[in-house]
């Protein structure tokens, strides 16, 4: 009788441990989650110690390089640090507003933000065959290799469980989980 209770307790502990390892959100990731879709797909990039990343793309009208840098805050928000670009007009300002600084050097505009913190942003993946990459820890992830062109994605940082990782697609080329 006592042996049976010990076995049942051990089984209960083992089941609890498996459930925790499977469903507890502990892994901090960048998430690109498809929007305006009945069955949205989530794409994950696991985060490590580096708190900074860049989104690099070719502006759809000017066809010039744009670099945006973000810092991940302690509470999984995105602090927009700066953006660099070569042309001004649609979407690329030629002046700084309150809380911003604009410097032009060698034809490159650098717009720096004092304290612009956001929860997420929507990233549209254009159909044009131009660069769109996420740079993290000195590695470039070419997002058009993973994401569908003509679709929009909610870009945010969160913690996910192993179960959620298995349901999504990793963009770092590694196996799930």
Note down, in words, how this protein is organized.
This protein is of the alpha+beta class and 177 residues long. It has one domain (25-170). 16% of the residues lie in helices and 44% in strands. The protein contains two helices and twelve strands. It has helices spanning 2-23, 162-167; strands at 27-34, 42-46, 52-58, 65-72, 78-85, 100-105, 108-118, 120-124, 132-136, 139-142, 152-160, 169-170. The strands form two sheets. It has a seven-stranded antiparallel sheet, with no helix packed on it. Strands 8-11-1-2-12 form a five-stranded mixed sheet. A hairpin with a 6-residue loop joins β3 and β4. The chain is elongated.
Outline of this structure?
The chain is α+β, with helices and mostly antiparallel strands and 177 residues long. The protein has helices at 2-23, 162-167; strands at 27-34, 42-46, 52-58, 65-72, 78-85, 100-105, 108-118, 120-124, 132-136, 139-142, 152-160, 169-170.
């Amino acid at each position: 009788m006592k042996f049976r209770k010990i076995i049942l307790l051990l089984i209960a502990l083992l089941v609890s441990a498996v459930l925790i390892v499977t469903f507890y959100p502990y892994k901090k990731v960048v998430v690109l989650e498809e929007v305006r879709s009945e069955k949205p797909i989530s794409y994950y990039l696991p985060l490590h110690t580096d708190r900074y990343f860049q989104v690099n793309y070719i502006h759809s009208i000017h066809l010039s390089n744009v670099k945006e840098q973000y810092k991940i805050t302690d509470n999984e928000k995105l602090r927009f640090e700066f953006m660099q670009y070569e042309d001004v007009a649609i979407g690329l300002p030629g002046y700084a507003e309150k809380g911003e600084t604009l410097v032009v050097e060698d034809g490159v505009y650098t717009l720096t933000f004092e304290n612009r913190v956001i929860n997420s942003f929507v990233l549209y993946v254009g159909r044009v065959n131009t660069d769109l990459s996420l740079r993290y820890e000195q590695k470039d992830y070419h997002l058009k290799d993973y994401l569908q062109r003509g679709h929009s994605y909610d870009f945010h940082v969160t913690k996910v469980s192993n179960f959620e990782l298995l349901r999504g697609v990793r963009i770092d080329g590694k196996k799930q989980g």
